[in-house]
Amino acid sequence: MADVTIDFIGIGAARSGTTWLAKCLMEHPQIFFPYTKEINYFSKTRANNTKSEYEISGIKGYLNLFKNSPENAKKGEYSTYYLYDKTAAQIIKKYFPNVKIIVSLREPVARAYSDYNNIKLSDLKEKRDFKRAFLDGKKDDTGNFDSLNDYKTRSMYYKHLSTYFDLFPKKNIHIIIYEDINKNPEKVVKELYKFLGVDLNFRPSVLHKKVNAQEATKIKSLRYFINFLRNVVLFFEKIGLGKLINFIKRKTKLNKTFENVNKANKSNVEKDKLDPKIEKKLKAYYAEDIKNLEKLINRKLSEWR
Q: Is the dihedral of CA 157, 160, 166, 172 positive or negative?
């Protein structure tokens, strides 16, 4: 187990084509990907100060996820919370200093609005209008500011990415712009495969498909019941049974079951367009961050302004 290394880790940003990218990685025959996206092993993703899986099971538990990988396969995963968690970045650097980092970025307000709609229509946890939710920020279950899930903060790419550029060589960080996926998915996928050193000519089945489109919950009572079950799981984690809970989730693929039930209980919806006046006002919050990001990644982002 000590000899196992990880070749790549996708770190975000949420609602920026990451599910499509993960599918492109999963399907490639020269890549080994764990059974699901969003392992978030190194990151504290939930409220009430529950421990991350790394704090509970250490690096051994993480490497166990890759124990069945073929000998010559490129091994990696994609967890969007890593982008927002400096502790996760430092843990990744500690164990995998030469890992390749993949990140997809989307126009900040569009990303935040997509995030908001996902929470409102799918998870049924958002009751405010978008402008109020954006300006007020998000709170966790204890009433404290939730920086890992705040709509506005999660789109501050320079703020988060600079941590990774400080820790890893620039040549090891591959930046994908979401808008480029829509314009030319073939080019995006080829450049990604080239970055990882796998066959460039492989064409994933999702190449021209929309993945993880905007959805709404069909049966709200079922969604509320799933939320209740997740809160029960969180309670058991909080009282010190996290290792047992994570073991059960991995062995039974409980997360996958939740995901499948959720999927069956959703339908695609036509996303409401954001009011242009509100959009213009909110874009002002990102002007400085975008300017700094352009210097960091050496690319103009005029289409975001």
A: negative
Pairs from 63-68 (Cβ < 8 Å, separation ≥ 24): 63/1, 63/4, 64/1, 65/34, 65/39, 65/41, 65/250, 66/4, 66/6, 66/32, 66/34, 67/1, 67/4, 68/32
CA 58 – CA 108 distance, rounded (Å): 34
Asked if 283 and 108 touch (Cβ cutoff 8 Å), the reply is yes
* Residue 92, C-beta contacts closer than 8 angstroms, at least 6 positions apart: 9, 42, 82, 99, 167
| Two structure tokens written together for 197 | 């050193």
Given a contact cutoff of 8 angstroms between Cβ atoms, the answer to whether 234 and 51 are in contact is no
Q: Which phi and psi (to 5°) does residue 8 adopt?
A: -150, 150
Q: CA 104, 109, 112, 113: dihedral to nearest 10 degrees?
A: -120
Q: What is the mean pLDDT of each run of 10 residues along the chain (305 residues)?
A: 82 95 97 91 72 91 93 96 94 97 98 91 83 85 70 95 98 98 97 98 93 68 72 69 68 70 66 89 96 98 94
Of residues 147, 109, 166, the one with CA closest to residue 289 = 109
Sign, Cα dihedral of 40, 41, 43, 48: positive
Helix or strand or coil: residue 236? helix
Distance from C-alpha of 36 to C-alpha of 23, rounded to nearest angstrom: 10
76/292 Cα distance (integer angstroms): 29
pTM, full prediction: 0.84
The neighbour count for residue 186, using CB atoms within 10 Å, is 10
- Non-local CB neighbours of 3 within 8 Å, separated by 6+ positions: none
The partner residues of 31 in beta bridges, in order of sequence, read 74
Q: How far apart are CA 281 and CA 291, in angstroms?
A: 17
